[in-house]
């Protein structure tokens, strides 16, 4: 992921966009822009799927990744995002039940009307990601 983040760093700097070296909260102007960019790409993804256009699907996915990586850099989290991802991945794997099976909303007699159908629900094995530990590890 570092090579992609490096490309986004160059891009952000070349267009005078928000860039930070360490984690920060963005101004409302900046975070609202980042949100709107992500929303726009999500809408393009949905439209491409609805149209059955695989080329536009991959275009939307590439654009989503580009905007997301730019948002990571805007927040100055490029140096910790790998650790964050790994921590969240471990936490998500802990959603599996004691037999290593997912508990999927709307399947096998499980239904939580507050969650989307098809969402993987938390098992009793679940543990929350410890993101504070990552900030401490990086002395942030």
Structure in words:
With 140 residues, this protein is mainly alpha-helical. The protein folds into 2 domains: 2-74, putative ntp pyrophosphohydrolase like domain (putative ntp pyrophosphohydrolase like fold, Orthogonal Bundle), CATH 1.10.3420.10; 91-137, no CATH class. The protein is 56% helix and 3% strand. Strands 1-2 form a two-stranded antiparallel sheet. It is globular. The mean pLDDT is 96.
Concise account of the structure shown:
Helices cover 56% and strands 3% of the residues. The protein has five helices and two strands; from the N terminus they run ααααββα. The chain has a two-stranded antiparallel ribbon with strand order 1-2.
Superfamily (CATH H level) name of the largest domain: putative ntp pyrophosphohydrolase like domain
| CATH-defined fold name of the largest domain | putative ntp pyrophosphohydrolase like fold
CATH architecture classification name of the largest domain: Orthogonal Bundle
Tell me the number of strands.
2
How confident overall, as mean pLDDT?
96
Global morphology: globular
Unreliable residue runs = none
> What quaternary form is this?
single chain
Q: Pairing-aware structural class of the strands and helices? A: mainly alpha
Percentage of residues in strands: under 5%
Order of helices and strands: HHHHEEH
Share of helix among residues? 55-70%
Helical segment count:
5
Please, how many domains?
A: 2
* Integer-rounded radius of gyration: 18 Å
Distance between the termini: 21 Å
Largest sheet: 2 strands, antiparallel
Largest sheet strand order: 1-2
CATH class of the largest domain: Mainly Alpha
């Amino acid at each position: 992921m570092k090579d992609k983040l490096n490309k986004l760093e160059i891009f952000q700097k070349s267009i005078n966009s928000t860039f930070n070296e360490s984690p920060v909260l963005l101004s409302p102007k900046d975070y609202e822009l980042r949100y709107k960019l992500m929303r726009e790409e999500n809408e393009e993804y949905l439209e491409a799927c609805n149209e059955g256009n695989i080329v536009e699907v991959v275009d939307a996915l590439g654009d989503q990744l580009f905007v997301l990586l730019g948002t990571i850099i805007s927040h100055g989290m490029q140096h910790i995002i790998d650790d964050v991802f790994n921590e969240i991945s471990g936490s998500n794997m802990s959603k599996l039940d004691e037999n290593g099976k997912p508990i999927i909303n709307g399947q096998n007699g499980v239904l939580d009307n507050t969650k989307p159908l098809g969402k993987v629900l938390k098992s009793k094995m679940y543990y929350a990601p410890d993101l504070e530990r990552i900030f401490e590890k990086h002395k942030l």
